[in-house]
Write a structure and sequence with these properties.
Blueprint lengths: L15 E7 L2 E5 L6 H7 L3 E8 L3 H11 L3 H8 L6 E4 L4 E10 L6 E10 L3 E6 L7 H9 L8 H33 L8 H31 L11 H64 L11 H24 L4
Parallel strand pairs: 3-7
Antiparallel strand pairs: 1-2, 1-3, 4-5, 5-6, 6-7
Length: 337
């Protein structure tokens, strides 16, 4: 019996993806990188997209030679943790952006850097890991196929729009978390130390998210500059993306302020509860101290008014019960008990 045929890996984790369009019509896909020049030379209206996931240095050097990529851009694509930016070279631009995903359970912000080499006739995307499924971007392109005749501007817009959508998902998760925390602040149950660590992790992730959002705004703004001519006739669509980035920046600013307010409120409530507890303890201590004072005074082995008489017993009993009762009613009136 022959062994079963292994299932091929899904397309969204493939090492290399390629597509070519002519006048907005898809004419080829999943062809070898070596055939890119043939497609570009065959017709000046052809636009090519190449995607690589976690490429090695040798693979990038082959691409650099094939597309005449600037060595500084290639170094940036190989180096980790590039901030979102747009660099300009003679024959192409280099774009670095980040997609994000917030894990609400751990509070960690998962980032995936996406680099892109952009030319009037081709775009090369480099993903630093496979946690960003490029198939979702391809599906977005297919849903907007009517705009495909705009070429590289259409492809770049689809990529940016999808990445920005992931920022909105992260913002919603931050917002849901802080709504839950805001409601839990006024619970009488003390905060668990594990929850405090989770709060800190979320807040640290929000700070990182805000830095990425601010840099993303600068990168999209640079793309929209008229002299760069990257947006072309799709400028209104890029303006919409920029508006989304501004909303994300405003939301992250508001969430940072809310996070700081929650921390301050939590500290204030903690101090208030401690004061309430100390006030109750002090009130009960005063009540008990008065009874102790009365019994101690009348328990002295020396003569005193009413000593050895029924009057002394009555007076001491009334004082031992009446004064603590009076203090109890006074403290209750002042809401100290």
């Amino acid at each position: 019996m022959s062994p079963p045929t292994p299932t091929p890996p899904p397309s969204d984790v493939a090492a290399v993806s390629t597509r070519a369009w002519r006048d907005g019509t898809l004419i080829a896909q999943d062809f070898p990188i070596g055939d890119v020049s043939e497609h570009l030379d065959a017709d000046p209206s052809v636009v090519v997209w190449v995607d690589l996931c976690e490429p090695g240095r040798d693979e990038l050097l082959v691409l650099a030679e094939e597309f005449s990529l600037h060595e500084l851009a290639v170094e940036d694509a190989l180096a980790p943790h590039q901030r979102p930016k747009l660099d300009h070279y003679d024959t192409h631009q280099f774009l670095a952006i980040h997609t994000v995903r917030l894990d609400p359970d751990s509070g960690e912000l998962d980032e995936t850097e996406i680099d892109a080499f952009i030319n009037a006739r081709w775009i090369i995307t480099i993903r630093k890991n496979d946690r960003f499924p490029i198939v979702q971007v391809v599906e977005r392109w297919e849903r907007s196929a009517a705009l495909a005749h705009h070429g590289v501007a259409f492809l770049l817009h689809g990529l940016l729009d999808h990445v920005i959508d992931q920022y909105f998902v992260a913002i919603d998760r931050f917002d849901d978390f802080y709504d839950t925390i805001s409601q839990a602040l006024f619970d009488e149950r003390p905060l668990d130390p594990a929850d405090q660590r989770h709060w800190f992790t979320i807040r640290r992730s929000l700070v990182r998210f805000h830095r990425l959002a601010v840099s993303m705004r600068e990168a999209v703004s640079e793309i929209m500059r008229r002299e760069q001519d990257l947006a072309g006739e799709l400028y209104p669509y890029y303006q919409d993306v920029y508006d989304h980035v501004l909303r994300i920046n405003e939301s992250s600013d508001a969430l940072r302020d809310l996070g700081a307010t929650i921390v301050e409120t939590n500290l204030a409530l903690r101090d208030f509860r401690q004061n309430q507890a100390m006030r109750r303890v002090g009130s009960w201590a005063a009540i008990i101290a008065v009874s102790t004072l009365i019994t101690g005074y009348y328990g002295m082995n020396v003569p005193y008014p009413g000593s050895g008489d029924t009057t002394g017993v009555v007076v001491s009993t009334l004082l031992a019960l009446g004064l603590p009762a009076g203090l109890y009613l006074y403290f209750r009136h002042r809401d100290w008990l």
